[in-house]
Write a structure and sequence with these properties.
The complex is a heterodimer of chains A (about 400) and B (about 210). Chain A is α/β, with parallel strands linked by helices and about 400 residues long. Chain A has helices at about 15-25, 40-50, 65-80, 90-105, 130, 145-160, 190-200, 225-255, 280-290, 310-315, 340-345, 370-385, and strands spanning about 10-15, 30-35, 60, 85, 110-115, 140-145, 170-175, 185, 260-265, 270-275, 295-300, 305, 320-325, 355-360, 395. In chain B, helix 2 (about 35-50) crosses helix 6 (about 175-185), helix 4 (about 145-150) runs antiparallel to helix 7 (about 190-210) and helix 5 packs parallel to helix 7. Chain B has a single domain (about 5-210), classed as Pyruvate-ferredoxin Oxidoreductase, domain 3. Classes of the chains: A alpha/beta (about 400), B alpha/beta (about 210). The interface of A and B includes residues 177, 184, 278, 284 and 368 of A.
């Protein structure tokens, strides 16, 4: 059943951080443990205002570092509560050790992350180096294009994380400053709608259930460690169906549709850009401009990077002649970025596959303009025309 | 051109017309003058009037007195662009002492509009700021003085918001005043004199802005 789309006059003009904090208030988690870091600071700052005003039942734990924030969140989640935190950049890096503990302990923590470059040199602006560095930590990763998606992804993440087939932590991303501090129209749900959607949380094995004692975080050597890590793999595979099911249900509530990715004018495209987060919006604009000039261009905006939807991506892109895979992070392998590496690997066994080039772009908040995106499509057109791929790793918008 | 004539023209070609589906605005000020807040207030007022909007500052060193730039996009259609604005139709200058280091007219397309906080006439502003493109239309309003008289401090952002909306024919005065009052009441809880002063500042600048 289609939901009536709200009119723009019913939207709220708020920033990405305000939207995420608003969702956190509506989720009303049992515990929030956090430490401030630009540009995510506002999320917890606004949430602590809600807390001070008595609008949430949350126990707030103000800790002395992000390592402690994640540790306290894991403890709270293991105890049987719905626990959240938020961070960025160096904060996420300081959590790194504990990220693996969260997924290995199967604590369904949900954490908004505002993407920011990592030191050195010191930089507070957007790129995806922070969360891409966490890609092997066993967390589900959802990337959002704008404030609306930051809001929607956070609410859906509660259901994804806590699903019995998954029981994994989820991080939901918005772009630092571009989204976190930019004001846009955001459609908000009613508090009751959010509560009805996420439901209550009942942990299967709460640590504080003293009648049914359990052990968390034991030593696990050659006897069972491998089996337990294998279960994390299974959970990540299971997450794919859960992500789609939750998205369907969310669409029934809001009219807004989500999947592993969004395709835009891709069906008959000869050239496509694969991109995630805010740069996808600018790319969508350029697709429309170039289509008016008769260029058969399209876009695929990746939302879910963990689990990596390899089969679905191949299916969506295999008919395209040439693709440009955009990475706002560099793996420093000398061979490009993480999305580029994984998407090209997904095509390895395919007979029919597009020619592919990988662009590193926007590091440290470098603006990605209409002209930049146009130049990428022109590069793709050139590849199709000449049949020559040329350099497979390129840097967009950098001074040479 | 008179303010009334331009506002009527802009309302034609602007949000409702074909030529300017996407309105882009750039605000220049110094840290502490409220350029970012002006952009946020503009965004909120336009959203309240049923527009799709963006409001975002260009983040640099956050110091009192340092140059600050903020932006708006306003449209009848959803806005997907997430890059900075290169060719704003409207540029609002909160502080003319930035002129030595910043080219206020950079990227303004032909027929664009420059609105300046100054005691100069528009013709004087055009000459003193070196606006060489004759198709750019210059407007002035003494926003600092208005702010001093209404708020008690020379913070020019809210009067400049009033002037911009008049010139650009974006949001009608009553809707603008209601939106500004609502937003400032949240920000300045228990300090109604600040809210009233700012609302009066918007109203006065809306009426006092001068065209060439």
């Amino acid at each position: 059943m289609a939901v009536k789309q709200k009119t723009v006059a019913e939207s709220h003009a708020i920033t990405g951080n305000e939207a995420v904090a608003y969702a956190m208030r509506q989720i009303n988690p049992d515990v929030v443990a956090a430490y401030p870091i630009t540009p995510a600071t506002e999320i917890v700052q606004i949430f602590s205002n809600y807390h001070a005003d008595g609008l949430v039942d949350t126990e707030m734990v103000l800790v002395e570092s992000e390592h402690s924030a994640m540790s306290a969140t894991i403890g709270a989640s293991a105890a049987g509560s719905r626990a959240m935190t938020a961070t960025s950049s160096q904060g996420l890096l300081l959590m790194h050790e504990m990220l693996y503990v969260a997924s290995g302990t199967r604590t369904p923590i949900v954490m908004p992350v505002v993407n920011r470059a990592v030191s050195a040199p010191l930089n507070i602006h957007c790129d995806h180096s922070d969360t891409m560095g966490s890609r092997d930590s066993g967390w589900i990763q959802l990337y959002g294009e704008n404030a609306q998606e930051g809001y929607d992804n956070l609410i859906q993440s509660i259901r994804i994380a806590e699903h019995p087939d998954v029981m994994l932590p989820v991080m939901t991303m918005t772009d630092g400053f571009i989204t976190s501090h930019g004001m846009e129209n955001v459609f908000l749900l009613e508090d009751e709608e959010v509560q009805a959607f996420i439901g209550g949380f009942k942990a299967a094995y709460p640590l504080l259930d003293t009648d049914n004692p359990v052990t968390f975080g034991p030593v696990d050597f050659t006897d069972y460690y491998f089996e337990h890590r294998r279960q994390v793999f299974e959970a990540m595979v299971n997450a794919k169906q859960v992500i789609l099911d939750v998205a369907k249900e969310y669409e029934r509530l809001t009219g807004r549709s989500y999947g592993f990715f969004e395709t835009y004018r891709l069906d008959d495209a000869e050239m496509a850009i694969v991109v995630l987060s805010s740069a996808a919006g600018t790319t969508r604009f350029v697709v429309d401009q170039l289509r008016k000039q008769g260029m058969k261009v399209g876009m695929l905006k990746l939302r879910v990077f963990r689990p990596f939807p390899a089969t679905e991506l191949v299916e969506a892109l295999k008919h395209v002649g040439a693709i440009a895979i955009m990475d706002r992070a560099d793996s420093l392998s000398g061979e490009g970025g993480p999305v580029g590496a994984e998407l090209r690997a997904a095509f390895y066994n395919e007979e029919k596959r597009p020619k592919a080039v990988n662009y590193i772009y926007g590091l440290g908040g470098r603006d990605v303009t209409i002209h930049h995106i146009e130049s990428v499509y022109k590069d793709l057109a050139n590849i199709l025309e000449t049949g020559v791929v040329g350099p497979t790793v390129r840097h967009l918008g950098v001074r040479e | 051109m008179s303010v009334q004539t331009l506002a009527a023209q802009e309302a034609q070609v602007g949000l409702s017309g074909e030529a300017g589906e996407l309105i882009e605005i750039r605000w220049h000020g110094r840290g502490g003058q409220g350029a970012k807040t002006a952009a946020l207030l503009m965004g909120e007022a336009a959203a309240g009037a049923g527009r799709y909007i963006q409001a975002f500052p260009e983040y640099g060193p956050e110091r009192m007195g340092a140059p600050v730039v903020a932006y708006n996009r306003i449209s009848m259609k959803p806005i997907s662009l997430h890059c900075s604005i290169e060719n704003p139709r409207y540029v609002a200058v909160l502080d003319t002492t930035l002129a030595g280091q910043i080219d206020f007219t950079a990227g303004i397309p032909d027929g664009g509009v420059l609105i300046v906080n100054t005691g100069w006439t528009p013709a004087e502003a055009r000459a003193n700021l070196g606006v060489s493109n004759p198709t750019i239309r210059v407007f002035t309003v003494n926003a600092g003085v208005i702010a001093q008289e209404t708020i008690g401090r020379p913070i020019p952002n809210t009067p400049m918001l009033g002037a911009l909306n008049r010139v650009a024919g974006l949001i009608d005065l009553d809707s603008l005043l209601t939106s500004v009052r609502h937003k400032l009441e949240l920000k300045f809880r228990g300090r109604p004199e600040i809210v009233d002063g700012n609302v009066e500042a918007v109203r006065r600048a809306y009426q006092e802005v001068q065209g060439e």
